[in-house]
Amino acid sequence: MKLLAIDTSTDYLSLAVIKDGRVITKFHRRAAMRHSILLVPTIDKVLKKAKLKVRDMDCFAISIGPGSFTGLRIGVTVVKGLAYALKKPVIAVPTLDAIAMNAKKSKGIICVVLDARKKKVYACMYRPDGKDIKKISPYLLLPLDDLLKKTGKYDKVLFLGDTEENNFKKDWHPKAAIVGMLASEYFKKKKFTDAADLEPMYIYSRECDITGL
Length: 213
What we know:
Blueprint: E1 2-7, E2 12-19, E3 22-30, H1 35-49, E4 59-63, H2 69-86, E5 90-93, H3 95-100, E6 109-117, E7 120-128, E8 133-135, E9 140-143, H4 144-151, E10 157-161, E11 168-169, H5 176-188
Parallel strand pairs: 1-4, 4-5, 6-10, 10-11
Antiparallel strand pairs: 1-2, 2-3, 6-7, 7-8, 7-9
Helix pairs in contact: 1-2
């Protein structure tokens, strides 16, 4: 099974080619929100490095958010186009899950946090077991102070994300290599998303007013 994974949800551009459950080539660099310019040429570059053509892919995986609305739209649009043109399946991977996998070997609770603006954050909590992670909260949209109250009941919490809090781990950005490995597992279970239905993940919290977000 050959799979192209893409993440455009943050200011990084990340791509990876997965073959039979193994990362064979990857690209992960800050793109300064130039995803619209860089994405297609970078797809060509990583495929050429892998000595594969886009038509060789059995599936396309995309990190669907939450994250930068503009970046997500660019990634989703490109994947839709590839899937339609080549009649290949799509796998959608939540961005917060991919970020959490950066710390799957940590101890305690992982809390992934992304700036949602308007003084709110996207967040989700996970419990790692050394090999994998288990999601232990819904995907949330809420003020940071409210999130810190939720995490306060745990003895040890590792924060991954882009808030200005100085206790948040810096090396957190979602990586296409991780998106691709998660998608490989989804592929085995045939957890596909129809290209016509593929959309970025928008989180609407019951706990706060998001009018104007």
